[in-house]
């Protein structure tokens, strides 16, 4: 069970949720998305897919426990997409999750939002990783590395796979697909598959425990 949490809109929660879900479907897993966002972006994305997996269930924070219980035996992987607002949704999602992923852009204001999201996950001692999303290919790699280093000093781990800004993400999402389906040999598809593989390793505990947050950081 994976929770996507970030108290900021537009940082890529839904994009990464749908893309990781389809990567898992293509890996022959039974996959569901639980959409806790009242704006129901993931659910609308699913409407356009008809019966094609993954299944997407739109629900509210108060119902999450019950919904997840009913899903337990039917799915190998459940991803929970959350709204950007502070409230119950990210709390209950993180509580239910084995792994918390926090997408962010590499900008000071976004990083500040990351730190707030991390606090919530840290309070529950869940394995938590930041994912750099929508990174410009033109930007020097050193910016990402420096941001990674600074977060590291606070005990915050960043996924090794950076997701870049690519048109295929938005375009595919708009037609209820993912880049894995519309452009399976693209760089977008490659980086999502790499991220998915890494996520799988985290879930299986193969890569060891993620760094624990330092006290007072
Ligand atoms: N890596 C990316 N490259 C290009 N566009 C992106 C990328 N990630 C997100 N977007 C676009 O940014 C917008 C917000 O992304 P979304 O996943 O809906 O964010 P959130 O769910 O966190 O609010 C969408 O239009 C999406 O297509
Ligand atoms: Mg969203």
Strand order of the largest sheet: 3-2-4-1-5-6-7
Which CATH class is shown? Alpha Beta
CATH topology: Rossmann fold
Bound molecules: adenosine-5'-diphosphate, magnesium ion
How many extended strands? Answer: 7
Q: Could you tell me the strand content as a percent range? A: 5-15%
- Full CATH superfamily name: P-loop containing nucleotide triphosphate hydrolases
| Amount of helix | 40-55%
Estimate the global geometry from the Cα principal axes: globular
Question: Which key phrases capture this entry?
Answer:
217 residues, alpha/beta, Rossmann fold, 44% helix, globular, binds adenosine-5'-diphosphate, binds magnesium ion
Description:
By secondary structure, the chain is α/β, with parallel strands linked by helices. The longest helix is centred in the C-terminal third of the chain and has 17 residues, at 187-203. It has one domain (2-203): P-loop containing nucleotide triphosphate hydrolases (Rossmann fold). It is built from 9 helices and 7 strands. Strands 3-2-4-1-5-6-7 form a 7-stranded parallel beta sheet, with helices on both faces. The two termini are 27 Å apart. Mean pLDDT is 90; it is low at 207-217. Helix 1 (13-26) packs across helix 9. It is globular, with a radius of gyration of 16 Å. Bound molecules: adenosine-5'-diphosphate and magnesium ion. The site of adenosine-5'-diphosphate (ADP) has 17 residues, from helix 1 and helix 7.
């Amino acid at each position: 069970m994976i929770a996507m949490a970030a108290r900021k809109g537009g940082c890529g929660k839904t994009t990464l949720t749908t893309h990781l879900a389809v990567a898992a479907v293509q890996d022959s897993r039974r996959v569901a998305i639980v959409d806790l966002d009242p704006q129901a972006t993931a659910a609308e994305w699913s409407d356009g897919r008809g019966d094609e997996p993954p299944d997407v269930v739109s629900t509210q924070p108060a119902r999450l426990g019950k919904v997840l219980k009913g899903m337990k035996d039917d799915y190998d992987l459940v991803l929970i997409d959350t709204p950007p607002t502070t409230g119950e949704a990210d709390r209950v999602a993180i509580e239910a999750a084995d792994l918390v992923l926090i997408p962010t852009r590499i900008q000071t204001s976004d990083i500040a939002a990351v730190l707030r999201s991390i606090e919530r996950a840290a309070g529950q001692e869940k394995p938590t990783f930041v994912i750099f999303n929508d990174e410009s290919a033109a930007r020097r790699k050193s910016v990402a590395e420096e941001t990674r280093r600074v977060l590291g000093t606070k005990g915050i781990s960043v996924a090794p796979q950076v997701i870049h800004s690519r048109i295929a993400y938005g375009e595919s999402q708009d037609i209820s697909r993912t880049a894995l389906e519309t452009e399976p040999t693209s760089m977008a598809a490659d980086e999502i598959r790499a991220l998915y593989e890494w996520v799988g390793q985290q879930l299986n505990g193969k890569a060891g425990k993620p760094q624990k947050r330092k006290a007072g950081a």
